[in-house]
Amino acid sequence: MEDRQQWVPLVTALIAGLLFGAGLVLSGMINPGKVLAFLDITGVWDPSLAFVMLGAIPVAAVGFYIMRAKERSVLRQEMQIPKNRQLDTRLIGGAALFGIGWGLVGYCPGPAVASLGVGGISSAIFVIAMVAGMWLYQLFELRYGH
Predict the structure, then answer these.
(1) Residue 54 belongs to what domain range?
(2) Domains contained in the chain, number
C-alpha cells in the first residue's frame, strides 16, 4: 500500500501535465506565431489567445476557490499556497522579464515544453535557455540569498 501511495501523485501529475499539454496543442498555443499575433495589436491581431484565457481562467478560479479552505489535496498532499501577497521588486522584475521574453519569442514555459513533442529547434533552444536560467537563479539564490 505504501508503494502505491508514492506513485499516485506522480501519475496524477503526469496525467494533468498531459492534459494541459494536449490543451495547448489543440488550442494552437504551442505556435509562437499565434502568440506573437495576439500581442501585435497594431498589426494583424489574432484574438484566439484571449478566448483560450477566457476559457481557462474561470476553471482555474473555481479550483483555487475550492482549495483555499483545504489543508490537503484530494490525494492527501499538503497544499502549498504562497502566503506572501506583497508586490516587491523581485516579483515585478520577474514578471517584466517573463513578459519581455514572451513578447520577443512567443513562448512561455508550458507551450515551449509541449512543443518539444512536435519537434522544432526553436522550442528546444528556448527550453534549454529556460532551464539554464532556472539553474542560474538557483545558483545566485543559494549564494546571495534574498
Answers:
(1) 2-144
(2) 1
